[in-house]
């Protein structure tokens, strides 16, 4: 794969998609629900996914596409080149706030992330990485993550997991929020990974994420040294939904051993 040519191609594709999303703000959007009343999808999520897929199929016909809204391929294995796309990550924010959402895209070859992009559409901020060449926030090269401690960390976590639940040791999670310097909840897994990569937060934990939520961000955050696993400490799954923790390497182990524990 010629990564630098692809990188330029993808950046221009993402900017064009962003332009389309910003234009949608002046027209009426159609909102539907998916698995439950709070799981939203709009015609724009679907149109943007279709826009990417049409272009990728035209320009990279041998590649496969794994997209959230289901217009891509049925992906059961990671042989060859797979593009993992979330056309709008943070749809609830898109609908309610018209900000705090992103386009997320990762390109994987035989299961290894080669290119990663997270585009904060409203702020026109692009986070990206080419494997082995470091990660960037617009024109700025991101620095490797520096060591920290739990007590000095800002951790992104969804408040709903602090309520008693079947899966997570919520008392340990409560201890975490009592110990860290601060908590945040941005509502877009992709942006949360971008913020981890740029050192604005130190960890991000989620009970359930899909491959397209993390694919782009994993390449970017990996380039600055972030560690990403499921709650059992296993490599993040790129074929199905799973628990997910991404953290500064100096706190990843202790987060899992002492605070984020499955029941
Ligand atoms: C969602 C967002 C959200 C996370 C959910 C995801 P979507 O993606 O990333 O922050 O908590 O688990 O499904 O549906 O807005 O693309
Ligand atoms: Ca969704
Ligand atoms: Ca998503
Ligand atoms: Ca989405």
From TrEMBL:
GO terms for molecular function: inositol monophosphate 1-phosphatase activity; metal ion binding. The keyword Thylakoid does not apply. It catalyses: a myo-inositol phosphate + H2O = myo-inositol + phosphate. Mg(2+) binds at residues 68, 86, 88-89, 213. PROSITE patterns: IMP_1, IMP_2. It comes from the Bacteria. PANTHER family: INOSITOL MONOPHOSPHATASE (PTHR20854), INOSITOL-1-MONOPHOSPHATASE-RELATED (PTHR20854:SF4). Its cofactor is Mg(2+). It holds the Pfam family Inositol_P. GO terms for biological process: inositol metabolic process; phosphatidylinositol phosphate biosynthetic process; signal transduction. Keywords: Hydrolase, Magnesium, Metal-binding. The keyword Secreted does not apply. This is inositol-phosphate phosphatase. Its EC number is 3.1.3.25. Gene3D superfamilies: 3.40.190.80, Fructose-1,6-Bisphosphatase, subunit A, domain 1.
């Amino acid at each position: 794969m010629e990564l630098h040519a692809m990188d330029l191609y993808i950046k221009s594709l993402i900017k064009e998609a962003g332009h389309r999303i910003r234009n949608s703000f002046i027209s009426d959007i159609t909102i539907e629900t998916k698995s439950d009343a709070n799981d939203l999808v709009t015609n724009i999520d679907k149109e943007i996914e279709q826009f990417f897929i049409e272009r990728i199929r035209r320009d990279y016909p041998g590649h496969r596409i794994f997209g959230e809204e289901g217009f891509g391929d049925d992906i059961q294995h990671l042989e060859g080149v797979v593009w993992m796309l979330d056309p709008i990550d943070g749809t609830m924010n898109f609908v309610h706030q018209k900000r705090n959402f992103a386009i997320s895209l990762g390109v994987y070859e035989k299961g290894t992330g080669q290119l990663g992009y997270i585009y904060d559409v409203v702020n026109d901020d692009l986070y990206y990485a080419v494997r082995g060449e470091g990660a960037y926030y617009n024109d700025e090269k991101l620095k490797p993550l520096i060591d920290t401690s739990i007590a000095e960390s800002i951790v992104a976590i969804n408040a709903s997991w602090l309520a008693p639940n079947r899966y997570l040791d919520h008392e340990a999670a409560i201890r975490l929020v009592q110990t860290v310097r601060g908590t945040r909840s941005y509502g877009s897994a992709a942006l949360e990974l971008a913020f981890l990569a740029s050192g604005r937060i130190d960890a991000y934990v989620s009970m359930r994420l899909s491959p397209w939520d993390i694919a782009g961000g994993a390449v970017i955050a990996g380039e600055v040294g972030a560690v990403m696993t499921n709650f059992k400490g296993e490599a993040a799954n790129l074929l199905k939904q799973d628990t997910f923790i991404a953290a500064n390497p100096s706190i990843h182990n202790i987060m899992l051993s002492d605070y984020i524990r499955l029941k």
